[in-house]
Amino acid sequence: MRLILLGPPGAGKGTQAERLVEKYGIVQLSTGDMLRAAVAAGTPVGLKAKDIMAAGGLVPDDVVVDIIADRIEQPDAANGFILDGFPRTVPQAAALDDLLKRKKMKLDAVVELKVNEGALLQRVENRAAETRARGEEVRADDTPEVLAKRLASYRAQTEPLIHYYSDRRSLLTVDGMMSIDGVTEEISRVLAAIGAGAKAPAKPARRASKAGNGTRKVSKPVARKPAKAAGKAGKKAAKKAKKPAKAARKAPKGARKAAKKAVRKPAKVARGKGGREGRESHQKGHEKAS
Ligand code: AMP
Description:
Blueprint: E1 2-6, H1 13-24, E2 27-30, H2 31-41, H3 44-54, H4 61-71, E3 81-84, H5 90-102, E4 109-114, H6 117-133, H7 144-158, H8 160-167, E5 171-175, H9 180-193, H10 219-224, H11 226-239, H12 246-250, H13 253-264, H14 276-289
Helix pairs in contact: 1-9, 2-3, 4-5, 11-13
């Protein structure tokens, strides 16, 4: 399985990536971690990145693209990977598309963790306190001032990726304001719903929370894949009475359930055109939740 985790600093990408790594047996590729290691080791890349990172800016695209190009070819990434903190700009996303195409690799999904920005400062402060409590050194960029810059660069340079991937119908949006376990469960659910990750729990697909922001909610992939199987299944099921249809039998467990459900009631597709209004109303939902 190959995934991208998208979300602002403090959204919980690292925490969720660790859990996905365990669950799906894939590797977490965090450009932030790799760059920090390069800075600590004093490599040429590290020397280039050090001041930019400390100031909350973005390291040049070609530097991170080269790092990722090397890394996804390593044997430990053969089973799949989760990109955490990459891509962060549209040119990085375009470079990743080219890279994957050249290597004949397919991206399964882009998971966006949607969070209320107001909560991010608190989260980053908590992370710094926990790091201190473990006796480890706090990240130079985990300060309120630098966080403000990182958020600004997220908004200006990374947020356009939400549209980039939603246009390509790869985007799955998850409410990142839930508990850590709740977010993990929701990610597993949306991935199972699109048939990604054989080990994902076989829960039937249902609509994700309303967003209407142009992002593809879980109901869309559900409708695309399992519903197709369900279409066939429906016809066969009508003929063969109780016997599950071939398409549904062949499908992975999660898809089978979704297919069965879709036979009863076709999955609804959330085709929200989105735009600012939708995003704002969704954001309000988060604010209520937080
Ligand atoms: P992170 O740990 O993902 O928050 O990244 C920490 C810092 O590393 C960022 O604030 C950037 O300075 C740099 N960085 C990480 N990933 C990228 C990327 N894909 N493109 C540019 N800079 C990056």
